[in-house]
């Protein structure tokens, strides 16, 4: 564990991560000594998840298999819960939501199922954002996913959660909890704290959920292999904010549940966006997009941008290094695909 | 060295590799036990512990290793243990070339040839005359203070001459230097705030800790990801990572586990108002939990005890007070705090063993997951002892 915390994460030697994964495997095995002891089995599953989150693949992804077995075991012991609140009823409570006046802003263009050539020529090559419609209509997640379903499939699994309004805040932190705990603490009640299951490769950890999504066809226009595409889950309540930042890869942001307000600034405008100078945050702007301090950041007011409200079933193409700001208008689940 | 009653060394914490700790039984020792090696009557003056082995040097110049690395050698003045290599300072002949620095692979058992050696320029009377502080200018700082040794290449690292180094400590990913004027410098990785400059940026060269300017320091100690220093007036300053409570600041993980014994009912403890920040702090209201403290914070010991010396392990901290008590806090999973259990603490707690045995603690030296303590029997007359 200490080796995993030494140096930058990408520099941690894979062997230490493998050792950690083995440690988790052994510990989980010991905890499963008494199958009837539900808390011990739940702890064993948590330990498997720690190995999956921080360790590296060992023995043909044995931790995934163990986790699946433990999950099934725990699920069979559970009695069916009371009727859970559906996300749709949450939308009715619109008090306090500040929906931006998108109509007065320059919109991101929309296209319905463009051909590969059209997409490459008009958007990928010149690096222009676009919203693709009709592309993910057949994905199972569009009809299957709900809070109830996610709790059933992944409720006992341990996931990383970001606590705090945005990652540039002083009191922002990351913690681990089960999906059940996350949903009950941050999604069901209007919690005073914002919790966000953000930028997590949930589908590597829980292969069952991976079956509900696919890979956008347009990714084949890239140079990399399909297994190099990073798929992240973004699951959180209304009000989560990702501060204006840029990423080093192309991005397809697939909206599954809820709506998100998104603003996009071209990389050419970088200077007017005042990126942080520190190494840690050099890809993040210092400006609060919806409440900019124009005295400190005067050029921001003039920087042109595109914006949209991304709704379920829509896919936003964010070109590489295109600055983007995201705020969830509803309880939201998005899936992002980082590809090159 | 001033005339004084000879004391003895004790150890507690992790000894999974059979390193000299207590009787060497078992993998953990939760309460202080007298060191069994190198043998009764051995006058040990230096203990340097790495994760898997411990090096012990006697006043007679005997070096003995125990744990994953074994072996012994004579003619040694100082030793410094790390997983990558063992540094040994061999005394030079009275006339001629000066002391020799040797770097050994720990598993060589001190047989054969060292990995490399470096002969140092002899300096007149530079070791014992250090004002009664035999551990001053200890490894990895080299005699003469012109350079220090790192367990990672480049091994020999010169120090700028204007840095008149008195003491140098290496942490997991950073380094602390105390100069003759009592100023503290830090450099290395800063991701956990261990450099104390108020940011998380790395600093390649020694940089003065401005927050401590004007407060002359007497001791520094570096842990895995945290730093501690003791002022000449006995105050303690801490900064860096606090995930196990190693800074004695409120730690979230301890509260959530419910395992901390810090908040003992009925005890008139000072509470969080204890934790005053030094000049230069930007913080407003104190946060409930502190994961990273990026600049020095003043730490008070119970009953206003004054600190004399500090040492840091990987994620725990130990402090000796002027009245000869030992306080420990931080990660305690292997009993390295010496409180007869394996709870971690985010508050300083006195090690009662030494009080109960009427022993006066004089020095502490932490390994990564264990703690070694030097103590003498209490004098009847109660006159103050000279500081080690």
UniProtKB/TrEMBL annotation, chain A:
Alphabetized UniProt keyword annotations: Biological rhythms, Cell cycle, Chromatin regulator, Dioxygenase, Iron, Metal-binding, Nucleus, Oxidoreductase, Transcription, Transcription regulation
PROSITE patterns referenced in this protein's UniProt entry, alphabetically: JMJC (PS51184)
Cofactor(s) this protein requires: Fe(2+)
Enzymatic reactions: L-arginyl-[protein] + 2-oxoglutarate + O2 = (3R)-3-hydroxy-L-arginyl-[protein] + succinate + CO2
SMART domains in the record: JmjC
Domain JmjC, first and last residues per copy: 195-340
Subcellular location(s) of the protein: Nucleus
Primary localisation category: nucleus
Cited InterPro entries: ARM_KDM8_N (IPR056520), Cupin_8 (IPR041667), JmjC_dom (IPR003347)
EC number: 1.14.11.73
Region feature (Disordered): 77-101
Pfam families: ARM_KDM8_N, Cupin_8
GO biological process: protein destabilization; regulation of gene expression; rhythmic process
GO annotations of cellular component type: nucleus
GO molecular function list: chromatin binding; histone H3K36 demethylase activity; metal ion binding; peptidyl-arginine 3-dioxygenase activity
Oligomeric form and interacting partners: Can form homodimers (via JmjC domain). Found in a complex with RCCD1. Interacts (via N-terminus) with RCCD1 (via N-terminus); this interaction stimulates H3K36me3 and H3K36me2 demethylation. Interacts (via JmjC domain) with H3C1. Interacts with FBXL3 and PSMD2. Interacts with CRY1 in a FBXL3-dependent manner.
Protein name: Bifunctional peptidase and arginyl-hydroxylase JMJD5
Organism of provenance: Mustela putorius furo
UniProtKB/TrEMBL annotation, chain B:
Superkingdom as given in the UniProt entry: Eukaryota
A GO cellular component annotation in the UniProt record: chromosome
Keywords: Chromatin regulator, Chromosome, Hydroxylation, Repeat
Residue intervals passing through the bilayer: none
RCC-type repeats, residues: 182-233, 234-323, 324-377
BP-aspect Gene Ontology terms: chromatin organization
InterPro entries per UniProt: RCC1/BLIP-II, RCC1_domain-containing, Reg_chr_condens
UniProt xrefs under Pfam families: RCC1
Subcellular location: Chromosome
Xref: PROSITE patterns: RCC1_2, RCC1_3
SUPFAM superfamilies: RCC1/BLIP-II (SSF50985)
Family annotation (PANTHER family): RCC1 DOMAIN-CONTAINING PROTEIN 1
Subunit structure: Found in a complex with KDM8. Interacts (via N-terminus) with KDM8 (via N-terminus).
Function field: Plays a role in transcriptional repression of satellite repeats, possibly by regulating H3K36 methylation levels in centromeric regions together with KDM8. Possibly together with KDM8, is involved in proper mitotic spindle organization and chromosome segregation. Plays a role in regulating alpha-tubulin deacetylation and cytoskeletal microtubule stability, thereby promoting cell migration and TGF-beta-induced epithelial to mesenchymal transition (EMT), potentially through the inhibition of KDM8.
Protein name as it appears in the record: RCC1 domain-containing protein 1
Annotated gene: RCCD1
């Amino acid at each position: 564990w200490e080796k995993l915390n030494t140096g930058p994460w990408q520099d941690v030697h894979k062997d230490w991560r493998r050792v950690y994964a083995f440690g988790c495997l052994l510990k989980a095995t010991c905890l499963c000594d008494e199958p009837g002891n539900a808390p011990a089995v739940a702890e064993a599953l948590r330990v498997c998840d720690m190995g999956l989150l921080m360790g590296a693949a060992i023995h043909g992804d044995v931790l995934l298999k163990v986790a699946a077995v433990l999950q099934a075991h725990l699920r069979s012991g559970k009695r069916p819960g009371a009727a859970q609140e559906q996300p749709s009823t949450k939308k009715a409570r619109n008090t306090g939501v500040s929906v931006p006046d998108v109509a007065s802003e320059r919109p991101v263009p929309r296209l319905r199922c463009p051909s590969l050539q059209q997409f490459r020529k008009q958007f990928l090559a010149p690096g222009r954002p676009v919203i693709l419609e009709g592309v993910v209509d057949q994905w199972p997640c569009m009809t299957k996913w709900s809070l109830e379903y996610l709790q059933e499939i992944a409720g006992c699994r341990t996931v990383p959660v970001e606590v705090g309004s945005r990652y540039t805040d002083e009191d922002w932190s990351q913690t681990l909890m089960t999906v059940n705990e996350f949903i009950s603490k941050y999604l069901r009640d209007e919690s005073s704290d914002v919790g966000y299951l953000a930028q997590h490769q949930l589908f590597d950890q829980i292969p069952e959920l991976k079956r509900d999504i696919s890979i956008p066809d347009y990714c084949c226009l890239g140079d990399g292999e399909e297994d190099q595409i990073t798929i992240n889950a973004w699951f959180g309540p209304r009000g989560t904010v990702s501060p204006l930042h840029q990423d080093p890869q192309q991005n397809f942001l697939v909206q599954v549940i809820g709506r998100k307000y998104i603003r996009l600034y071209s990389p050419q405008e970088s200077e007017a966006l005042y990126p942080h100078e520190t190494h840690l945050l050099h890809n993040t702007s210092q400006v609060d997009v919806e409440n900019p301090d124009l005295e400190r950041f005067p050029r921001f007011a003039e920087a042109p941008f595109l914006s949209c409200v991304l709704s379920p079933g829509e896919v936003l193409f964010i070109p590489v290094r295109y600055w983007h700001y995201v705020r969830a208008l509803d309880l939201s689940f998005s899936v992002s695909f980082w590809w090159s | 060295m001033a005339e004084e009653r000879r004391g003895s060394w004790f150890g507690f914490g992790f000894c999974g590799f059979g390193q000299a700790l207590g009787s060497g039984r078992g993998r953990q020792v939760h309460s202080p036990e007298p060191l069994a090696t190198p043998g009764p009557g051995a006058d040990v003056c230096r203990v340097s512990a790495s994760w898997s082995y411990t090096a012990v040097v006697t006043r007679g110049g005997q070096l003995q290793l125990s744990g994953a690395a074994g072996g012994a050698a004579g003619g040694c003045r100082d030793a410094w243990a790390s997983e990558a290599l063992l540094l040994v300072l061999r005394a030079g002949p009275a006339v001629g070339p000066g002391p020799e620095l040797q770097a050994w692979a720990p598993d060589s058992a001190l047989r054969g040839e060292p990995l490399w050696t470096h002969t140092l320029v002899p300096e007149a009377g530079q070791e014992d005359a250090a004002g009664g502080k035999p551990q001053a200018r200890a490894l990895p700082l080299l005699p003469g203070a012109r350079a220090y040794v790192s367990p990672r290449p480049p091994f020999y690292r010169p120090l700028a001459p204007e840095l008149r180094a008195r003491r140098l400590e290496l942490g997991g990913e950073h380094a602390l230097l105390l100069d003759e004027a009592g100023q503290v410098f830090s450099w290395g990785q800063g991701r956990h705030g261990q450099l104390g400059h108020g940011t998380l940026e790395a600093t390649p060269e020694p940089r003065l800790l401005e927050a401590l300017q004007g407060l002359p320091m007497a001791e520094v100690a570096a842990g895995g990801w945290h730093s501690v220093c003791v002022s000449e007036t006995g105050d303690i300053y801490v900064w860096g990572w606090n995930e196990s409570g190693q800074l004695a600041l409120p730690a979230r993980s301890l509260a959530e586990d419910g395992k901390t014994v810090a908040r003992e009912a009925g005890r008139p403890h000072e509470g969080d108002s204890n934790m005053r920040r030094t000049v230069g702090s930007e913080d407003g209201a104190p946060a409930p939990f502190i994961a990273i403290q990026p600049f020095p914070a003043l730490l008070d010991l119970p009953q206003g005890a004054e600190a004399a010396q500090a040492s840091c392990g990987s994620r725990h901290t130990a402090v000796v007070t002027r009245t000869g008590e030992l306080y420990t806090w931080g990660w305690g999973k292997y009993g390295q705090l010496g409180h007869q259990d394996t709870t971690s603490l985010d508050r300083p707690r006195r090690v009662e063993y030494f009080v109960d045995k009427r022993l006066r603690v004089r020095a502490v030296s932490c390994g990564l997951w264990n703690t070694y303590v030097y103590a003498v029997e209490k004098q009847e007359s109660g006159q103050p002892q000279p500081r080690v």
